[in-house]
Amino acid sequence: KGKNHPKWRFQYTDWTGYRRSATGFTSKPETKKLANRIESEHDEIRKGLRPPPHSWKKHQTRPIDDVITDISIGVSLKVGVGETRGKDHARVKRLYLNWWKEQLGLETLADLEGILSNVEAVLQELQGAGRAGKTLQNTAETLKSFCRRCVKWGFLEKDPLSDFVSFDTTPKTIRRAMTS
Questions:
Q1: What one-character-per-residue DSSP string does 31-74 give?
Q2: Residue 59 Cα distances to 21, 28, 42, 159, angstroms
Q3: Who's near 7: CB < 8 A, 6+ residues apart?
Q4: pLDDT tens across 119-177, in order?
């Protein structure tokens, strides 16, 4: 049925026990070597001689916009009866995440590694512009919750903002009590 594929294909059993297919080289001996190497690696993982691959590694090159969309959809699906958050909450979180993306120059999930110093620099700049501690804390909380959710869903190995220190959220001005 038509032309032969220019490269050899092979099958192997992966470390979870599923049968997988892969494409090798145009040379049959090279493809056999590759197939034997891949199958032996998966055998070692199955036997406990090698650690299993981490799920977060395959998400490193994922565009940050896709992850923001996925997480925004996940958050909006969780909003149900009795919850105080709604569509406005998800919309505001998405706006803040896009703002953070622009401020930090984030393109992929791998760009989130080691961003703590950059986040603190951006927040210090906002503090210098006169923003209150509560505003800064709310701004940072959006990115912190995004990173925590990425860890929970297996997109990141660890939370890059786990060592973030909270701001003092005491009000700058005390407002009087409302009159009757």
A1: HHHHHHHHHHHHHHHHHTSSPPPPGGGGGTTSBHHHHHHHHHHH
A2: 21, 32, 20, 15
A3: 23, 24, 25, 26, 31
A4: 999 999 999 998 888 889 988 998 998 899 888 888 888 899 988 888 888 887 788 88
